[in-house]
Amino acid sequence: PPMADEERQPRRDPFYSEMPKVELHAHLNGSISSATMKKLIALKPHLKIQDGMPVDKEDGTLEEYFRMFQLIHQITNRTEDVLMVTKDVIKEFADDGVKYLELRSTPRGEITTGMTKRTYVEAVLEGIKQSKEENLDIDVRYLMAVDRRGGPAVARETVKLAEEFFLSTDDTVLGLDLSGDPTVGHGEDFFEPLLQAKKAGLKLALHLAEIPGLEKETQVLLGLPPDRIGHGTFLHRCAGAGPSLTELVRRHRIPIEFCLTSNVRSRTVPSYDRHHFGFWYGVAHPSVICTDDKGIFDTRLSREYQLAAENFRLSQAQAWDLSYKSIDCIFASGGVKAELRKKWSRLKPGPLSD
């Protein structure tokens, strides 16, 4: 078997686990830990799933990782599964020092179990509510995801659902995510429904330029413009007519969510030290470190910060600053941001090494 992660990886530095953090790019189903997977599989003996994952965690292709979601969907096909998964994922993030979390997930109906898109969303919201009642030190919000595979008609349905929950949930449903297999469909087809959502007050976090060759759709979707960009892996390498995509993103100061392990493991980035985080951080662009799918990629947000710090030579003070500035990029209100800034100031260890 490949070398255990802890041997291959730098030793865990407790500084990063203890540092308060914001997680803004976490897919609920991809964040399921192996401990939760075991519980789910035990509840579904009839599926005869061999324990574990169908993909080698060290090194798969993007396509294999999308296949893995199909397995996960099979074992999370009832609202009680969704509730359990939501609570476990929130607790694991809280245990890793995450103080504010925006979870994203596509509302999913399952004919066989009677789960509808609406009851799916309600189960996620119930998981958030119960975690809060258990006094976990984490503020959790929900971004409703539009899966590219569903096409624009499903996107319009999701936007309607999101608008409704946006109004009824006291700011828990704050926005939309556009995600799913980047090779499927045309991003341009989602412009209208997303624009509609934006006009209704929802925020937009869109996966953009995750693979090469998507300049046209990226250009179109940047016209919305989105409130944050997921990955943006090929943005600064896009040669195109007109102002470069890099210039557009920099001009609008659209924060980018960086997921180092996810990109290296799914081979859209050759190595940690060549991750595009280095480019954007180097030009002082709003940059947020995230996990993407902590379950599938077997990672934690503290580990992603440590990898960023070690590969791009960030001091403790710079890593802290990166975490503190990510508060600016959250979708919750100015009041919530102010509270989080106070919390960071209270938790700051002194003096940090430069």
Automatic annotation (TrEMBL):
Membrane-crossing segments per the record: none
Gene Ontology terms: biological process: adenosine catabolic process; inosine biosynthetic process; nucleotide metabolic process
One GO MF term attached to the UniProt entry: metal ion binding
Pfam families named in the record: A_deaminase
Names of the cofactor(s): Zn(2+)
Catalytic activity: N(6)-methyl-AMP + H2O + H(+) = IMP + methylamine
Keywords: Hydrolase, Metal-binding, Nucleotide metabolism, Zinc
Alphabetized InterPro entries for the sequence: A_deaminase_dom (IPR001365), Ado/ade_deaminase (IPR006330), Metal_Hydrolase (IPR032466)
Assembly: Monomer.
Identification of the protein by name: N6-Methyl-AMP deaminase
